[in-house]
TrEMBL record, chain A:
Gene Ontology biological-process annotations: iron-sulfur cluster assembly
Xref: SUPFAM superfamilies: SufE/NifU
Superkingdom of the organism of origin: Bacteria
Residues covered by the NIF system FeS cluster assembly NifU N-terminal domain: 83-161
Organism per entry: Cryobacterium levicorallinum
Name this polypeptide is given: Nitrogen fixation protein NifU
Automatic annotation (TrEMBL), chain B:
GO molecular function, one term: cysteine desulfurase activity
PROSITE patterns: AA_TRANSFER_CLASS_5 (PS00595)
Family: Belongs to the class-V pyridoxal-phosphate-dependent aminotransferase family. Csd subfamily.
Family annotation (Gene3D superfamilies): Aspartate Aminotransferase, domain 1, Type I PLP-dependent aspartate aminotransferase-like (Major domain)
Cofactor requirement: pyridoxal 5'-phosphate
Residue intervals of the Aminotransferase class V domain: 53-435
Name of the protein this chain belongs to: Cysteine desulfurase
One Pfam entry name: Aminotran_5
Biased composition, class Low complexity, residue ranges: 1-20
Entry keywords, A to Z: Lyase, Pyridoxal phosphate, Transferase
Documented EC number(s): 2.8.1.7
Disordered: annotated span: 1-25
Amino acid sequence: MSDLQQLYQTIILEHSKARNGAVDLTPLAEAVALGAASGLRVAESHQINTTCGDEVTLRVSLGAGASAETDGADSAGGAETAANAIVADLVWAGEGCSISQASASILTDTLRGLSVTESRALLDNFREMLRSRGKIEPDEEILGDAAAFGGVSRYPARVKCAMLPWVAFEAALIEAESR
Amino acid sequence: MTSFAPSSAATPPGTPAAGSQHPELAPLTNIDVERIRNDFPVLHQTVNGHPLTYLDSGATSQNPISVMEAEQEYYEQRNAAVHRGAHTLAVEATEGFEAAREKVAAFVGAQTDEIVWTSNATEAINLLAYSFSNASLGLGGPAARRFSLGAGDEIVVTEMEHHANLIPWQQLALRTGATLRFIPVRDDGTLDLLAAANIVGPHTRLLAFTHGSNVTGTLNPVAELVALARKVGALVVLDACQTVPHLPVDVAALDVDFAMFSGHKMLGPTGIGVLYGKTDLLADMPPFLTGGSMITTVNMQTAEFLAPPQRFEAGTQRISQAIALAAAVDYLRETGMDRVAAWEAQLGQRLVAGLAEIPGVRLLGPGLGVERLGLAAVDVAGVHAHDVGQFLDDAGIAVRVGHHCAQPLHRRLGVTASTRASTYLYNTTDEVDLFLATLAEVAPFFGVSTGVRR
């Protein structure tokens, strides 16, 4: 495979067209209210890559984790449930290059259903790999399909494209946790 | 050194102004261009296993050896602060710095004192905007009142401006209470001149527009727009960043009040830009940046300022850059701006003709047969500009991708980003053809069906 084919692996090109999780976002206030009614904490983050104008708005719905049930309290779980919370749903809207679009699509598939702790660990691993300038081989065991972005780390100018939805996820997560 | 490569020959006094004509020299051909390329070391390299094809001169141009030598020679032989000190080096540095001003002035048909050095064209526009802002606060006394703006006054720009010729005016409007209006762009990427005639009206104090679009390559009708401004007594600011490097430009003949261009887009170094202003206007303008080198008498509470251009050149100047820019001007005028323009017009037409043959590729702006700069920006259906640029880079082809600092124009044309190839005097027809052939492979690589050939 040439470097270019490494960068644009089939799975990336497929995801850039499939755009899993991409929706027409409803107004945030509505989603927050709707989520609250079913015990979900909803938040979103809008990120722009100023070099190219790519943008993504990623919306996270956090659900109570398994141990939260044992807590008994209905909504006062707060700090206790935060660590065990589950990324119940992820949706996004945006436009940009194939790398950023595929990254949002793969992020949605990869992180949906993970616990907050697991998703953070995966995010850290992804970021470290991307910033390694090709020095760190992606770990497929940990990253799953997101390992396909290993080729991107050799193109410093494109790392931002791949990171864009993940940065949005990180910010939305913090916001959701504070709700 | 080729027959076009300038030596250190000084421009003789009385040399005809802008648009140095070379009727004795035949139009440029690929053979001439190959010789020109020998003067540009950076072009002779391999990128990603392919010879570099540099098609991003609209963003920044490359430097001939003579320009780099001029800068080095200055540092080796004459480096000193200008307009200060009486020692020999200081005198030589000052002479070189001022000779550069004279040369650049002659190149664009200006008087020497009408040329103000800035760090880049963006700073030149900001210099105007902040000077007018200061005038609006009453600085500069009664003479500066002609530049003062307030509620009810209008600044007019166009929808095709580079952000550098938009945001400083937005900010000036915010600071002064003036209103910013714009001349819209039509679907074909040209200005709506009918609308312009209504927008430029009795409240218009300033009309700022680009000579040539850095996205569509369109050349705007300067005379027509100047006439609109004159009718209502508005000042005219011409962004000449994309034209001074590529066409013979005579600011006096164009009768604009102000114009600006940047050194690095015309074979010069970065860090040097040029503001042109008519003598009587510069004379009445309050300064923007203040400090050393721009004053006469200084007291603890007040200061008197020098006449232009020094009034606008506070602090230690961009000396080596100005001297190197003069070497770039030598190179261009010895090649002949009319020949450069003709060659690039040919490359520009070749670009748009070839683009029309590639399925799924949409050219932004006017097509074949319409006068244009030697550049073209396109949208490739189904493939983001960044991906197009990456694919081209893999083939050693350097182009610009994104919004090229013109978001409103892209929005108007219905795209968020585009891919732009821009040529200069050192580009061959083979390079244009290689770009076209490689661009045609983009959609298949990304698995985008281009459907019916349009």
